[in-house]
């Protein structure tokens, strides 16, 4: 019996997906649905959904960029590359954290995050890219 129910549900879904939209609207009106009110609610929901999607994509992009910057700084510290280390030291001095982060070779990811917190990640990545050129 469950297979029959699945086929019926699938048939009803396909019917509505392939039916003229005006026929569906008329059916909903006959059932007492206020389409204008529902349209406003759907519009609000879509706006919230788009905003949430954009926020999540931005957050993911920022996390990936932050990880790349951290890796660049760690690589520069391990390879003793002067320019990125100088940039990191400037950030430390600008935040007046020089006592806290004296040993660059022992910096953890979280400490590097703390140092670059509040800095525009795109600008910082551009700065690091220019230093490698």
Q: Overall pLDDT, averaged? A: 85
In which range does the helix fraction lie?
over 70%
Unreliable stretches covering 5 or more consecutive residues:
none
Number of helices: 6
Describe the global form.
elongated
- How many strands? 0
Distance between the termini: 69 Å
Strand coverage percent:
under 5%
Subunit arrangement of the protein: single chain
Features:
elongated, mainly alpha, 133 residues, 79% helix, 6 helices
Task: Walk me through the structure.
The chain has a domain of 73 residues. 79% of the residues lie in helices and 0% in strands. It has six helices and no strands. The relative contact order is 0.07. The model has no long low-confidence stretch (mean pLDDT 85).
Write the layout of secondary structure elements.
Elements lengths: L1 H17 L2 H10 L4 H45 L2 H13 L14 H8 L4 H12 L1
Helix pairs in contact: 3-4, 3-6
Overview in brief:
The chain has 133 residues and is mostly helical. The chain has six helices and no strands.
């Amino acid at each position: 019996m469950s297979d029959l129910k699945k086929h019926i549900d699938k048939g009803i879904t396909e019917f509505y997906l392939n039916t003229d939209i005006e026929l569906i609207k008329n059916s909903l009106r006959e059932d007492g649905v206020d389409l204008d009110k529902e349209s406003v609610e759907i519009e609000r929901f879509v706006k919230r959904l788009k905003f949430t999607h954009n926020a999540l994509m931005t957050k993911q992009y920022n996390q990936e960029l932050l990880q790349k910057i951290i890796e660049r700084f760690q690589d520069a510290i391990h390879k003793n590359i002067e320019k990125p280390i100088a940039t990191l030291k400037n950030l430390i001095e600008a935040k007046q954290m020089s006592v806290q982060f004296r040993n660059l070779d022992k910096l953890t990811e979280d400490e590097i995050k703390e140092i670059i917190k509040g800095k525009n990640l795109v600008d910082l990545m551009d700065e690091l890219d220019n230093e490698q050129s």
